[in-house]
């Protein structure tokens, strides 16, 4: 870890339970394991790698953390083929060309001209550079779905996460004034490199228990009737036991409950489930499997 | 429980980190330091938070995450029993713990009661001559003792091949797009007119691979290796979809999308209905074409069938469905383990009906022949 950057005051987060309460105030229900991990992120300034199925609130952690600390959230969505140009910085070529044309008449040496068009004015900051340039306080940097980016990018990231500095050949090295809090998420579609994993704290986010999921439903859908809520949660938890290609996450539970509410239902019945099947089963095969397993049986 | 005295607490944490490393977690020295830092910033008296914090620091995958609580319980309960000189107890535990080699084996899911002899065996055969011999041996005739060694060699070679394929593509398509950034850089001395163009090579476009794997009785001894082959190829291709068939079709793509192959192979036998039964290639292919073809097949797809061609269905059906498939894909490859036999000629009714629609017809009876496929991919 670099020594120079400083962290802001820990906004009255003195222990893990404090953090759980703050998160809950922001509408994010969490357990002690995740809270401990996030607490260590704040205290130690280490990146946190969160793995788990889709739709369990991995991304949300970073958003809530940023809200809690009152800092900016900078998000980098990874995808296949993500390259340095769209992750770190890019020069604004059009503007550079125009500048060269405009300056043609001005008496300046080539070196001066070069220096001008490769100055900050022409730099397009992408998320990673933004996170390092933060002036006032440490932002939260969310690197979402890192498993989608390729290995070359991962190697680069490794460098960034250990030094928190970026080198732009034309400008020199930029070092972070405030080291960002880094949250990485992964859906585990491929193995991440050992070096990256070793650098991070790790948290595996699992499907929530019935009680926790009920708490989440109550927090996110304040108007929901207790009976409908518990029915939906119990149903989705049963569906997770089936061997679906994509088991429904908490997002799906909320979708399902929300649509039942907007249909004006007070309890979940077979017809409602069939009408809103798309909330829970995300492919034709899964839908067929669900029906084959007997929706009525699962509701009882 | 960690002691209140900071020094002793630190010592036990360091010992615990070593203990965890010997028992299957892959933490290094850096993580030990982090663990000490973490311990400083939490209330040590709260055992739950202490455990959770150490888990966040020391584990780095789901498997290790699950393993952690057991290791934690074992270490701290031992320390507690030996009330006074707990450090000694910790040390003893460490000496009793399995050697690192064995623990990494356990991580790979290769555990077994006879861990050490077979491991020694594995080391011994990685010599060049043994590897050479095993590469040529027919997969159906592999002696039981060599199976593990062959599995290891095959994974290594398959991985190498997949890397080689990736490299070859990168070198091939050179310079296709103008690199604006470097062009501007070069134009400055000339007053800003881009005279010397800089180029950028195009990122290689990866193909999709669909593997159609025969698991009927006659193919049994080959199928597991072919699954491994499919697994290793995943890295090189944009996407790999793998199907098993005998009398019906099962998709196993999701099973192979793991890093723990032995586990996946365990799940495989549950998934494969009719594993080691009869074969109806035509019927299976028709099912595939109906259900999956639209989603998976494109001019960008390489379609590989691995089968010996012993078909109990109608040859006309097979030929028709093959034609259908061929139309949609870039290349259709049929691998036949029997082609390795000297006296074999593809004259079975199914096989001779199929041949006109196949781009590449090749053997797949030993490692060497599988590796030779590099040429066609």
Description:
- The complex is a heterodimer of chains A (300) and B (377).
- With 300 residues, chain A is of the alpha/beta class.
- Chain A has 3 domains: 16-88 and 126-205, Rossmann fold, CATH 3.40.50; 90-121; 210-299.
- Chain A is built from 16 helices and 9 strands.
- Chain A has a 5-stranded parallel β-sheet, sandwiched between helices.
- In chain A, β6 (165-168) and β7 form a beta hairpin.
- The longest helix of chain A is centred in the last third of the chain and has 16 residues, at 226-241.
- Among the domains of chain B are: 6-97; 208-375, von Willebrand factor, type A domain (Rossmann fold, 3-Layer(aba) Sandwich).
- In chain B, 54% of the residues lie in helices and 10% in strands.
- Chain B contains 18 helices and 8 strands.
- In chain B, the strands form 2 sheets. Chain B has a 6-stranded mixed β-sheet. Chain B has a two-stranded antiparallel ribbon with strand order 1-2.
- In chain B, α17 (349-354) links the parallel β7 and β8.
- In chain B, α1 (6-22) packs across α2, α2 (29-41) runs antiparallel to α3 (47-58) and α3 (47-58) crosses α4.
- The model of chain B is unreliable at 81-128 (pLDDT under 50).
- The interface between A and B is large, with 41 and 38 residues.
């Amino acid at each position: 870890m670099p020594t120079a950057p400083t962290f802001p005051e820990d906004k009255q987060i003195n222990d893990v339970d404090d953090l759980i309460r703050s998160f809950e105030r922001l509408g994010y229900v969490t357990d002690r394991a995740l809270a401990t991990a996030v607490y260590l992120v704040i205290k130690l300034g280490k990146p946190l790698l969160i793995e788990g199925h889709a739709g369990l609130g991995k991304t949300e952690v970073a958003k809530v953390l940023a809200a809690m600390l009152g800092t900016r959230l900078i998000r980098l969505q990874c995808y296949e083929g993500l390259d340095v140009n769209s992750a770190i910085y890019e020069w604004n070529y059009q503007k550079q060309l125009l500048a060269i044309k405009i300056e043609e008449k001005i008496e300046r040496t080539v070196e001066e001209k070069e220096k001008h068009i490769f100055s900050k004015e022409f730099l397009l900051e992408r998320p990673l550079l933004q996170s390092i340039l933060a002036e006032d306080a440490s932002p939260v940097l969310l690197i979402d779905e890192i498993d989608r980016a390729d290995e070359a990018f991962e190697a680069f990231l490794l460098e960034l996460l250990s030094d928190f500095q970026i080198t732009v050949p034309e400008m020199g090295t930029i070092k972070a004034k405030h080291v960002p809090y880094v949250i990485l998420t992964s859906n585990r579609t491929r193995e991440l490199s050992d070096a990256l994993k070793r650098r991070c704290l790790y948290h595996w986010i699992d499907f929530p228990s019935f009680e926790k999921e009920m708490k989440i439903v109550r927090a996110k859908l304040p108007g929901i009737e207790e009976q409908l809520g518990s029915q939906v949660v119990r149903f989705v938890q049963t569906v997770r036991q089936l061997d679906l290609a994509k088991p429904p996450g908490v997002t799906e539970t909320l979708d399902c409950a929300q649509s039942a509410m907007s249909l004006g239902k007070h309890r979940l019945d077979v017809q409602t489930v069939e009408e809103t099947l798309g909330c829970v089963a995300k492919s034709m095969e899964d839908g067929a499997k669900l029906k084959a397993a007997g929706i009525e049986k699962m509701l009882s | 429980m960690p002691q209140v005295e900071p020094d002793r607490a630190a010592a036990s944490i360091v010992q615990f980190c070593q203990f965890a490393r010997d028992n299957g977690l892959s933490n290094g020295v850096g993580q030990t330091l982090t663990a000490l830092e973490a311990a400083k910033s939490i209330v040590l008296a709260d055992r739950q938070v202490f455990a959770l914090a150490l888990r966040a620091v020391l584990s780095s995958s789901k498997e290790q995450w699950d393993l952690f609580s057991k290791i934690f319980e074992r270490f701290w309960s031992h320390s507690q029993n030996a009330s006074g000189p707990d450090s000694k107890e910790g040390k003893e535990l460490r000496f009793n713990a399995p050697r690192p080699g064995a623990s990494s084996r356990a991580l790979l899911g290769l555990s077994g009661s006879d861990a050490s002899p077979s491991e020694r065996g594995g080391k011994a055969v990685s010599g060049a001559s043994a590897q050479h011999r095993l590469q040529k041996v027919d997969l159906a005739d592999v002696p039981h003792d060599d199976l593990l060694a062959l599995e290891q060699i095959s994974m290594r070679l398959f991985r190498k091949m997949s890397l080689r394929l990736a490299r070859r593509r990168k070198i091939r398509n050179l310079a296709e797009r103008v690199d604006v950034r470097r062009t501007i850089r070069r134009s400055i001395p000339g007053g800003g007119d881009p005279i010397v163009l800089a180029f950028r090579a195009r990122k290689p476009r990866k193909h999709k691979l669909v593997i159609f794997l025969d698991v009927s009785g006659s193919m049994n001894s080959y199928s597991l290796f072919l699954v491994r082959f499919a697994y290793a190829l995943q890295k090189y291709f944009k996407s790999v979809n793998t199907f098993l068939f005998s009398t019906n079709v099962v998709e196993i793509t999701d099973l192979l999308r793991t890093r723990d192959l032995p586990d996946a192979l365990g799940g495989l036998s549950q998934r494969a209905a009719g594993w080691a039964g009869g074969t109806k290639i035509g019927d299976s292919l028709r099912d595939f074409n109906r259900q999956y073809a639209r989603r998976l097949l494109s001019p960008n797809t390489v379609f590989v069938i691995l089968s010996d061609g012993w078909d109990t269905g109608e040859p006309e059906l097979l030929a028709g469905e093959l034609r259908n498939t061929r139309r949609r894909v870039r290349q259709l490859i049929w691998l036949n383990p029997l082609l390795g036999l000297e006296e074999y000629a593809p004259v079975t009714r199914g096989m001779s009906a199929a041949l006109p629609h196949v781009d590449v017809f090749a053997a797949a009876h030993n490692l060497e022949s599988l590796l030779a496929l590099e040429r066609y991919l």
